[in-house]
Structure formats: structure tokens, C-alpha cells
Amino acid sequence: MLSGVHAVKHAVRFGARLDRVVSADPAAALRVLAAVAPDVTVDVSPVPVEEVVRLAGAPVELVGLARRPSSVPPGPGPTVLLDNPRHLGNLGAVVRVAAGFGAREVLTTGTVDPWHPTVVRAAAGLHYAVPVRRITDLPDAVVGFDPAGDDLRTVRLPADAVLAFGSERHGLSAEVRARTTRLIAIPIRDRVSSYNLATSVAVALYAWTAAGGG
Predict the structure, then answer these.
(1) What is the number of domains present in the chain?
(2) How far is CA 126 from CA 60, 96, 102, 105, in A?
(3) Domain check: are 13 and 62 in the same one?
(4) What is the pLDDT of residues 116-175, one digit of tens each?
């Protein structure tokens, strides 16, 4: 379920197969779409606003129903591994960041479905731009992000690295720590407790890009 104009436009740009696109006001929705994404064209069916709210959870301009892709080409950058993420909005924001920086893929552990509608909404439909999947078997070697690690400013992140991020509350799990070949810390001002998950991923991928990786 693609909630809103931005989710629909990104999904279409990256090859989503839309089964249906609906709006309570198709003419208004298409005007917005033309303004923000003149390269994207879709057929929109009118439905009552109650149906839009039922699908999207809010009265958004546009709702698209699409199939999950069988495959998405990986990006040129590092893999992002989220260790048991819990906040759906943060998870979606990570997908958006990863797509923007060209991450190879986004992997998650734990019980949260990374394709949950709330995650897709927060990612603005960019699940179609970067591979996103949940795993049960961990990679053999990961680079873990942890306050006790080496300063990120002194590290060069290779494009084939798997960058592991724990939750804000619990950090990296023991299982992921057992696979780490190195711990890296993101610089932070004294007395500031932490960054949120999406910010941490953005800083790490920016560091890879700034070092000539992107």
C-alpha cells in the first residue's frame, strides 16, 4: 500500500507494478502529482474519502496498491543491517536514506516486517529503489556501530561492508556483536545521549560517500 503522492511517484519511478491507484479527488491528486513529479503518469480511480482513509489510515491525496518486487537491483554502497528495529517510522526513514545514498540493501532482524504499510509510508515508496528484506541468518562479518568504537572520522568504510546498527534503547545484540570485525562510533556532543536510528545510518553512509565511495 503506497500512501500519498510521494510514495506513488517513487514506486513508479523504480518500476513498481501498480494494480490500482485511487483518490477521493482524482483531478486534484493528478495536479499535485504533475507538480511534484511531471515524469510520472498514473490512472486514478475515484473512490469515497472513507475508502481512502480505510486504506491509508488518513485522508491522503492518492493511494496506490502495488505488488512487492520479485527483485530490486542492489546499489553500489554498503549494506545496512538493522538489528531488531522496533519503530516503524524510523525503519522507513532508514530505507529512504539508504535509497538516497545508494546502499546495496537494507536487512533487518527481529519480528518487525520491513514491508509493513507504515514502514513503506515513512520510506516514501523507496522500497522499490533498494532491496529491503528480513533475515534470520546473520552475515559472517559486520561493522558494528557503537559508542565504544573507533571514531568514524578516522575510518574509511568499504563499499562491500555490512554496517550494523542496533536499536536506540538496547544497541547491538550479542548475536550481532559476535559477528563484528570492528566497532565504530559516530561523534556526538557531550551530554547528548544518542542519535536516532535513521540519523545514524545517514551519518555513516554520508561518511562513505564523502570518502569517495559514492
Answers:
(1) 2
(2) 18, 6, 11, 12
(3) yes
(4) 989 999 999 999 999 999 999 999 999 999 999 999 999 999 999 999 999 877 789 999
Grid cell listed for 159: 563499499
- What sign for the dihedral angle of Cα 185, 130, 138, 134? positive
Residue 54 in grid coordinates: 480505510
Give the cell for residue 147.
559508542
48 closest CA partner among 18, 79, 23: 23
- If asked whether residues 164 and 60 sit together in one domain, one would say no
Lookup: cell for 99: 535509497
Are both 51 and 112 inside the same structural domain? no
Q: Which domain holds residue 131?
A: 79-213
Residue 150 lies in a domain: yes
Q: Is 47 exposed, middle or buried (0-12, 13-18, 19+ CB in 10 A)?
A: middle
> Do 27 and 34 meet the contact criterion of CB atoms below 8 Å apart?
no
Q: Which three cell numbers stand for residue 158?
A: 568499504
DSSP-based three-state secondary structure for 31: helix
Report, in angstroms and rounded to the nearest whole number, the Rg of the chain calculated over CA atoms: 19
Query: pLDDT tens for residues 84-93?
Result: 999 999 999 9
